[in-house]
């Protein structure tokens, strides 16, 4: 859906890359149903003319502006532009920075992009992402021994998106598909349970997801893959394997990726 067609536009404005603001926006969107929202993100905003232009464009559409700006002149200007254009704005970082100042008697550096500077944490995240992509869907069984987290689950239990999300948090992740006809590898059986996470969901929810997946691929929906009998068989096998491994199990039914990832981080 193009912005011109959209009646619900959220504009993100940042003097960095804007992913912090977008993560907050996405988390909020998940709390509402039947909302067709378009997000437009402006990153690396450094000059007042850039800010003025994006605010004028945002004012042409129904919606509001979410911003993460640390430079005082840009923070002041976006407030002035919001008044001039009668446009709602939401400051993501401001209240947190003020609480930090008031509580710890400190002052912010006011330098954009500090979160994404090329420090040790940055390189750790990049290494984790490369590792996780290379090990997707059980492609490298030996990598399990080097992983921080091994995700286990049936087909369509969000293993891959969860793995990538966790990799962006600096965790090396291997995801392994559970199939009744394939015995678990020795590498998996040798791992401590605190590095393993089992993923499951309600059978009727899985049936719906698999049926929609087959439709998207242009395949008949009456196949065994999308039958309740097959799904029940897989779930029973997965449950017995999780019990054998002694690992935590998360029911991801109706859970957003961010919520599931938060639970996993709590476990490890």
UniProtKB/TrEMBL annotation:
Signal sequence region: none
Record-annotated membrane-spanning stretches: none
Top enzyme category: transferase
Pfam short name (any one): Kinase-PPPase
Positions of ADP binding: 153-160
Catalytic activity: N(tele)-phospho-L-histidyl/L-threonyl-[pyruvate, phosphate dikinase] + ADP = N(tele)-phospho-L-histidyl/O-phospho-L-threonyl-[pyruvate, phosphate dikinase] + AMP + H(+); N(tele)-phospho-L-histidyl/O-phospho-L-threonyl-[pyruvate, phosphate dikinase] + phosphate + H(+) = N(tele)-phospho-L-histidyl/L-threonyl-[pyruvate, phosphate dikinase] + diphosphate
Keywords (A to Z) from UniProt: Kinase, Nucleotide-binding, Serine/threonine-protein kinase, Transferase
Domain of life: Bacteria
Assigned EC number: 2.7.11.32, 2.7.4.27
Family indicated by similarity: Belongs to the pyruvate, phosphate/water dikinase regulatory protein family. PDRP subfamily.
HAMAP family linked to this entry: PDRP
Function according to Swiss-Prot or TrEMBL: Bifunctional serine/threonine kinase and phosphorylase involved in the regulation of the pyruvate, phosphate dikinase (PPDK) by catalyzing its phosphorylation/dephosphorylation.
Protein name per its UniProtKB record: Putative pyruvate, phosphate dikinase regulatory protein
Species of provenance: Paenibacillus odorifer
């Amino acid at each position: 859906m193009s912005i011109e067609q959209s009646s619900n536009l959220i504009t993100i404005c940042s003097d960095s890359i804007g992913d912090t603001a977008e993560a907050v926006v996405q988390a909020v969107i998940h709390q509402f149903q039947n909302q067709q929202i378009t997000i437009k993100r402006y990153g690396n905003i450094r000059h007042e003319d850039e800010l003025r232009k994006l605010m004028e464009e945002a004012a042409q559409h129904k919606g509001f502006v979410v911003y993460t700006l640390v430079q005082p002149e840009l923070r002041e200007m976006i407030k002035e532009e919001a008044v001039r254009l009668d446009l709602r704005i939401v400051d993501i970082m401001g209240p947190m920075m003020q609480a930090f100042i008031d509580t710890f008697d400190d002052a912010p550096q006011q330098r954009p992009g500090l979160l994404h500077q090329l420090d040790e944490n940055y390189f750790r995240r990049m290494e984790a992402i490369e590792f996780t992509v290379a090990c997707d869907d059980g492609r490298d069984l030996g990598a399990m021994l080097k992983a921080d987290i091994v995700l286990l689950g049936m087909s369509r239990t969000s293993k891959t998106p969860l793995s990538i999300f966790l990799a962006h948090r600096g965790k090396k992740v291997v995801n392994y598909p559970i199939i009744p006809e394939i015995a678990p590898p020795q590498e998996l059986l040798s791992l401590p349970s605190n590095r393993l996470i089992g993923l499951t969901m309600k059978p009727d929810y899985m049936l719906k997801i698999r049926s929609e997946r087959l439709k998207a691929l242009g395949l008949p929906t009456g196949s065994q893959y999308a039958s309740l009998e097959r799904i029940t068989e897989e779930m029973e096998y997965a449950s017995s394997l999780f019990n054998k491994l002694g690992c935590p199990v998360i029911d991801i039914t109706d859970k957003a990726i961010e919520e599931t990832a938060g639970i996993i981080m709590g476990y490890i």
